[in-house]
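Chain A, query sequence.
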Amino acid sequence: MKRVEAVLLPAHLDDVAERLRMIGVPGMTITPIRETTLTDQVEMYRGAPVIHYLVPRVRLDIVVNDDMTETVITAVTLAVRRHEDGDGRIFVAPVEEVIRIRTGETGADALA
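Chain A, predicted structure.
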């Protein structure tokens, strides 16, 4: 099993969630986060410039079987890619074990 973590703009969340639902991803965890940037974003507030170096993002954590990993990566990429700075990042890491607490199911059975 693999854990696919995607960090993206909040505006893309609905598109990504819909694509993942369409390909049969059983579920995901969504966490609002703030990410630092290399270039400060300047915004005017009451006539004075305010510099933001933390920008809002969402992090999706998705655990899938190995054979579904590339499908999930492709779905997220197609839903988000605009070829612009800030499109996001995808991280993939192995998952040793998944256990459903309520039933004690393990492995792929615990994902569904």
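The chain has a mean pLDDT of 90. The two ends are 13 Å apart (CA to CA).
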